[in-house]
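Database export, one record per block. Field names are fixed; values are copied verbatim from the stored entry.
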Amino acid sequence: MKVIITTVPFGTIDPMPLELLDEQGLRYEINPLGRKLRPEEVAGVIGDADIVIAGTEPITDQVMEACPNLKAICRVGIGLDSVDLLAARSRGIAVSYTPDGPSPAVAELTIGLMIDLLREVTKADRDIRAHKWFRKAGRRLSECTIGVIGCGRIGGGVIKHLSGGFPGVKILANDLKAVPELDGLVTWADKDRIYNECDVISLHVPLTPETQNLIGVSEISRFKKNAVLLNTARGGVINEADLAEALREGMLAGAAVDAFENEPYEGELCHLDNVILTCHLGSMTEDCRARMEIEATEEAVRFAQSVPFLSPVPEDEYAMAERLAHKKGS
């Protein structure tokens, strides 16, 4: 079987994924463009490959149709919004992912960005480089009310870091389903209460038609004026144009964004000083990135050996995709 690796960088932190492919005698190629693929480039790069070790590039029904040899998609990461799951199932294409690999890294980055926003660390760095010396009093996490929307692996990890490391912090949490292990650490609340009461609002939801533009001007208008907003989840969860307008108008104190609707990002947020922008590096720690690459490659090897995936996309993800497709169609 032929393997195409579309996500980059790959095998640079730990060569083990490439060694695994070599040991199995699998032919492979790494993304020849050396960057994230644009939608119109995906099918051409996948070509006649049987297995794709994929990043966040969109693998749509049209891509699958153009790549008739494709039999398996092994996603490096947890997000599944880039893969048309229903199209894959209808075409008999197996899909796996690495849900545990990125979670610790993204949760830690989120805490770091919270502290950066509240203490204005990045702004102080910019000021000094501009020959300005101004010491502004910031806020401590322990004195804040934190709102966490989405309490899965990453959001739950953020909550555990906050509750374990910042005595006195108050956490309001929201999720579609109950998360019993977080009972006692949070106060469960609806989104409106989080928008109205929280000093820090952190998003950890998947990108679906229901969460697309979850946060726009209407929601931000309900924030406290000194609130800060973080998105270390998926691009498109925040309406980026609305966020830029809100930041310019002083509707919130600041924001941090790690994932964008179109990447690399070159939009108007780049021109604002009260936002921290990072290049989708939530999972990019040496250990987590290596773990994700190894796990996705192991899944590719399993498929080539006709062995079941260890981490197939769970049935509830397909069921959710069906519900959303039905809702969109109606």
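Remark 1: The CA atoms of residues 197 and 224 lie 7 Å apart.
Remark 2: The longest strand covers residues 145-149.
End of record.
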